[in-house]
Amino acid sequence: MTKSQLEQLFSSESDQLEKLNSMVLQSVEEEKLLTDKLKELEDQNPNFQARIADKVAAFGGSWRFIISFTFFMLLWIAVNIFLLHHPFDPYPFILLNLLLSTIAALQAPVIMMSQNRKEEKDRQRAISDYMINLKSEIEVRNLHNKLDLLITEQMKTLFEIQKSQIEMMENMQDLLIKIKKDPD
């Protein structure tokens, strides 16, 4: 194998490494783009109504609300039955029923707004998951391409090495034949 052939062999290896490095850099850039896109999809600063809806839904669906409202209703009933001689809401507690109906009527749409907001967040998460899955699929394909490139380049290199070795062996064989014919 001559010096120029060795240099050519090393340069092809170097070119192969440069190709791989450029592919890796491109993948890193694409990943940055994906994370930037995902951050854009997130709702960083919800508006005032959305924050209120979330807080009302969180409180309305908690044990603290159930216990405090039960305590309020028992207090209302006890005050109207036992403490006042002229109750402001006598039995059957029509004012209490009106209050409960009003709270339920106001609380239901606020909870629905919060659920719609959470559904939108879930939809955005699904889109993000889809993008990540798509990115993973692309990365797997890129890895396959890189492996194919590596194998192809290595096979070329191995064939070149094998070819040069065969040439060297033929040269050695020729020399041996000459030596046998002419021992001097």
Any key phrases for this structure?
88% helix; single chain; rod-shaped; 4 helices
Protein described:
- The protein has 184 residues and is mainly alpha-helical.
- The protein has one domain (3-179).
- Helix content is 88%, strand content 0%.
- It contains four helices and no strands.
- The mean pLDDT is 82.
Write the layout of secondary structure elements.
Blueprint: H1 3-41, H2 48-60, H3 63-83, H4 94-181
Helix pairs in contact: 1-4, 2-4
Number of domains: 1
> What average pLDDT do the residues reach?
82
What is the CA-atom radius of gyration, in angstroms? 40 Å
Low-pLDDT segments: none
In which range does the helix fraction lie?
over 70%
Question: What's the number of helices?
Answer: 4
* Residues in β-strands, percent: under 5%
Structural class of the helices, strands and pairings?
mainly alpha
Net shape? rod-shaped
Largest beta-sheet characterization:
none
Distance between the amino and carboxyl termini: 27 Å
Q: Summed up, what is this model?
A:
This protein has 184 residues and is mostly helical.
